[in-house]
Structures are given as C-alpha cells and as structure tokens.
Amino acid sequence: MNAFRLSLYGWLMVLPAAVLLALFTHIPVVESFVHSFMSTDKPKRPSHFVGLDHYETLIADPIFWKALTNNLLYALGSVPLSIAIAMLMALFVNDKLAGRGFLRAAYFTPTILPMIAVANIWIFFFTPDYGLLEQMLKPFGLGGHNILGSNNTALLAVTIVAIWKESGFFMIFYLAALQQISPDLKEAAAIEGTSRFTYFRRVIFPLLMPTTLFVMVNALINAFRVVDHIFVMTGGGPNNATSVLLFRIYEVGFKYFDFGLASAMTVVLLCVLGIVALGQFFALDRKVHYQ
Amino acid sequence: MTSLTRRLFTASALALGLSLSASAQAADIELRFYYPVAVGGPITKIIDEYAAGFEKENPGIKIKPIYAGDYVQTIGKALTAVKGGDAPELAILLAADITSLVDEDAVVPVDDVIKTPADKAWVEGFYPAFMENAKLKGKTYAIPFQRSTPVLYWNKDMFKAAGLDPDKAPKDWNEMRDFAKKLTKKDASGAVTQWGIEIPSDGNSLWLFTGLTTGNGVRINNAEGTKVNFADPKVVEALQYWYDLSKVDGAQPAGLINWGTTPRDFIEGRTAMMWHTTGNLTNVKTNAKFPFGIGFLPGKTQFGAPTGGGNFYFFKGMSAEKQAAALAFVKYMTTPERAADWSTKTGYVATQPAAYETPVMKAYAADFPAAIIARDQLKYAVPEMTVHENQRVTKIANDAIQAVMTGAKPADAALKDAQAEAERVLRDFN
C-alpha cells in the first residue's frame, strides 16, 4: 500500500511535465513517423498509405542531399571550433585579471542576443563594398568579395555566425567546471615544476572532459537545430548553398505544404540526431572520466 | 493511467468547446482577418486604424486583424487553420498563391459572395493587370489590395556627372547597358567605387526576372497555371543579359545581389540605378539626399514588368451573414479614398483608376510625380508567375537563376534543367 502510494505521488509529480512532453514532443514525433508513410492530405485526394514513396523521393532529390551535406559541413565547422574557442575564453577569464567581470559579460553577450538580431548585424558585416569586413580588407587590396552571394563562401559565413553565437554559451559551462577544480592541483603541479602547458594538457583538459562531452552533444544538436540566421541572411541560397535539413523541412512543409515529404525528412533528421547522441554517449563515455 | 489521461483529454476538449461557443455568442459578428507585413512603415498601425474606422461605421461587426508574419508565414498559418477546422474569415495573401488556395479548397470565389450589380461593378473597377491573377478557371477569387510593381530608380546627380541627360531613363536594354557602363566608377587600384546598376537576385529572384522576360516579349507561364516556359530561347537570352551586366560589362556586382540592402546601396550612392519595388518609394524619397528619377523597366523589344503583392481572399465555411459582413469590410478597405490613402502611406500602387482621381492622390502626385510612373507602367505589366504548386515551381526557377548569377551553371543548361523539373512537378495538373 505504502509503495503504491509512493509511486502514485511520483507519477503525480511528473504528470504535468509528462503531459507537456507527450503533447509537444512525443506525440508529434510519432505522428511525423506515421505521416512519413502517408500521402499529404489534399481536398480531392485524402491522405492514404504510400509506403516508402517519400523516402524514395528524398533519395532522388538533389536538394535534400545538398542540405544534408551542407548540414554535416556546418556541424563539422561549427562544433569543434566553438568548443575550442569556448574553452580558451573560459581559461582566459578564469584567471585573475583586471576587468574580468566585464570580459565575461562581453563573451557571453552573443548568447543573450536573439538569433534574428545577430543575423541582421552579421548581414552588414558581410555586405559587399561597404560592409565591415570589406572595409577592413579593402586597404590591403583584398576587397571585392560578395560573401553571402557566392556559392563558395556563403556556407562558411553562416557557420562563422553560429560559432560566434554559441561559443559564449559553452564558455559558461567550462567556467563552471574550471571553478570546480581544486586549487591544490595547481599548487602540486607548481611544486613539481610542471609547465603551464603540461599542467593544462595533463590535468585541466582531462578534468574538463565530462563538460566537453556535454557541450559537444549540445553543440551537435544545435548544429542541426539552430538555423534561424539562415532564414534572415541567405534564405538557403545562393542556389541552396546554405540550405540545411531543418531549413529544407520548413520549406517543404510550410511553403509547399507537402507534409508527407516534410515528415519523412523529419524522421531522417531525428535518426541523424539519435545516432549522433548515442554514438557520443557510448563511444566517448568510457574515455571521459579521469581514472 | 491511460484512463486518467483519456479523461483529462475529454475534459479539456469539452472546456475548449465550451469556451469557443461562448465567445461566438458574446460578439455580434466577429471577422478574423490575417495579414502580412511585407514593406517598411507602420503597417500594423494603419491596418488597425482602418479596422477601427469600419467598426465605427458598422456597429455589430467586430474586426480582428491578426498580424501573421511575412507572406509565406501568413499563408502557412491560414492553411494550417483551415486544416484544423478553424479558418479565418479573411486574409491578405500573395496574389500568386491563388492556385494553392484553390487547390487546397480553402477559399470561396468572390462571385459567390457578391450579390448586387453594384458589387459586380465594384469588382470590375480594379486594374486588369491586377485582376489577371485574381482569376482562375473563369472565376474571380480575390480582391486586389496591396499591389506593387518594380520600377527603375536612377540617381540624377550621377547621370549628370557621367555626361548623361539626368531627366531621361534608359529606354531599352542596350541603353541600360551603355548607361550602366558609363556610370561604373573605379578607384586607382581598380576596385569599383560606384556600380552602374543593381538588379537584386537573391530571395525571390524570379519576380524581377519576370520584368526582364516580359521586356523580351515572352511569358513564363500560361494563363491556366499548368505550364511554364523556362527553356524558351528568349528567357535564356534575358537571363544571359542579366548575368552579362555583371560578368561581361562589369557594371553590376558579381554574385547574388541582396534584395534588402539594394535600396540602401542606392541611397548611399553605391549604385547609380536599381530595379526595386514601388513599395520602397517612400523609403527612398525620405532618405535619399540627391534628386532621383523613376522610370519604366527598360525592355529589349517592349516595356514590361511583373505585378506582385497581396489580395483579399474570402475563406470557406462562413455563414451567409458573415460573408455579407466580410464583403462590407473588403469594400470599405478598397474604396478609392482608402486606396489612395494606403498608396500614399506605403508606396503600394493604388488598385483602381478611381483612386487616382481623389484629392489625396492628386495632391500627392503633384508633389511627387514619380508616384504616377508605377500606374502608367501597369499597361505593360503581367502578373508574377502564378502556377499550380506555385512556391515549389518558383523555388525551381529561383535556384536556376541563382546558379547562373553565381556562375555555377550556364543560362541555357540551368533553365533547361529547371524546365524539366517544373514539368515533373506540374505533371499532375496537365
């Protein structure tokens, strides 16, 4: 009886969260999965089972592959760099130096700004002729770029914005982790005559590994999830050079109203994210903890 | 547990149903009306004022204007609401989205809403160029409201400095190219400091491209919206001309030109000419510190421009009472006086000849003759591409144009591929 009451309490406690999660996460996931095997509902032709049709369309769709490749490049470019920069910034502002609070706040500012505002700022950095970047390059005779308007540079540009935006956020986690590290270790290392670099490589870096794993999982998920700036900066262009999975899903779902195909892409996105998360936890988890 | 959730769901569904019916009884007649904001200026404020003005004149009808984002977001929300069985009564959506709305069976023809001969005369009072893609399969589905068309803007000071007549716009493609070349300036290192022309090519590049194709005497889609004509040699020629302005003539920036920053380039004197919507007239007029001119888009064989912008649509599922109220509101929003007021406040082209006879519009035109150019260009205008699966086919065309403008593909190959892909999408409608 007591055990039953306890478990009832437990269930009641999680009920609000569970209902919300189910309503906005689990049910839509299942629905997307179901819809990906159904044709899109049209007035003249109601939704019916079409099997793997949508998946076959995807395999034959060059824009889907382009978006997938772009997304992988975007992740590959943004994740390691934003983590490295976050770690460097955290190490820097963890030391005792004048104006530390101000620096921390400055590094964190991009995180607070809404992505749409960030995108608007960066558009003017990248603008041809009189954008900030062009004005800096011009005196050296390196001007004349159309960064967001060229196939070769547009993806790089939106990746840089993502790095700029994310690094400050990840820095906070590293900063918290750094403050957990006992100062004894530093003293011990100093007595042993360890160089700063060795101390970092042998002591700090391994101790930060659990944080790195956490940050990496988040960064990777964000690389597939945070794409707001692409809407503002390039609209997926030029010629799909900056189209990524989530952007393409929006386009197919809410511009073409082809919910079946969009659902199939959502399932693909979920699988990619699932594999990424599982891979990280299982492959890296064993190496993460200091032993 | 499961029975508990089920009960919870039933309870909340019941509550929802109750609150819905309660609110329906409380108001007299409530019209929900979705609208997008697509140009600068205090659009929301103006719309709210119009709605309040209508409510004052028509007690018993409540207007609920709902700002719903840009055009794409607004139709997204409207169609989602239709699928959820809770459609708005009215919405302003892209004129070119008529096919999607009819294919989704979301709207009622205007012909079914209007009752009297006076109503009929009202529908016939709009410019034919705007009505062309308000009709589908012989039925009228929309009432023009916020319509625009692109025009050529030129900087008169720069024309003078380059030895050109500051009061004459280039009349055709050859002249536009020559002028643009003369207007391009470079510094000692060879870097361009002033461009001859900018025709924006990112985003919806197809809209301005339709200006080029129309000027070359070719239509890119048929009236039924079932066929496109991308691979036509004249369409290829138009795209080649556009590309050559950058690549061969060096008079236009290479790569994609941003729609949003082009007016700024013009205002800041980075470019001597630009193609842009009349929706930006007020913006340029307020901010440019130099005299500027407005002209027709130069063509190769004839003038030509696309029309764009949004129309009023009536959604399915309204009671006869609500339909009458909705009709009254749309009529109120499109009176010549309102159209003139809306046009002078936003730069949209007034949708009917009568609006140009109003004192407001006459005073505005006397002060700013350029505003009349857009109206006069209407007789050369064609609707922007309006086909079934419009967004999808538009995207195919945009991708092809962008591939060419960024140098990834030659014009003929890109347009041939686009034609094949568009035909595949339109297969079901032929």
Brief write-up:
Chain A has 291 residues and is mostly helical. Chain A has helices at 2-35, 53-60, 62-94, 100-112, 115-126, 132-137, 154-180, 183-192, 196-225, 228-233, 245-255, 259-288.
Q: What does this protein structure show overall?
A:
The complex is a heterodimer of chains A (291) and B (430). Chain A is mainly alpha-helical. Chain A is 76% helix and 0% strand. Chain A has twelve helices and no strands. Chain A has helices at residues 2-35, 53-60, 62-94, 100-112, 115-126, 132-137, 154-180, 183-192, 196-225, 228-233, 245-255, 259-288. In chain A, α2 crosses α12 (259-288) and α3 (62-94) packs antiparallel against α4 (100-112). The two termini of chain A are 44 Å apart. By secondary structure, chain B is an alpha/beta fold. Chain B folds into two domains: 18-147 and 308-382, D-Maltodextrin-Binding Protein, domain 2 (3-Layer(aba) Sandwich); 150-307 and 384-429, D-Maltodextrin-Binding Protein, domain 2 (3-Layer(aba) Sandwich). In chain B, 48% of the residues lie in helices and 17% in strands. Chain B has 19 helices and 14 strands. Chain B has helices at residues 2-26, 43-57, 71-83, 98-103, 110-113, 117-124, 128-131, 156-161, 173-183, 205-215, 233-247, 262-267, 281-287, 320-333, 336-346, 359-367, 370-377, 390-405, 411-426; strands spanning 29-35, 61-67, 90-94, 107-108, 135-136, 139-140, 142-148, 150-155, 185-186, 192-198, 271-277, 292-295, 305-315, 381-383. In chain B, strands 1, 2, 3, 4, 7, 13 and 14 form a seven-stranded mixed beta sheet that branches. The longest helix of chain B is centred in the first third of the chain and has 25 residues, at 2-26. Chain B starts with a helix and ends with a helix. Residues 1-26 of chain B have low confidence and may be disordered. At the A-B interface, α11 of A face α3 and α18 of B.
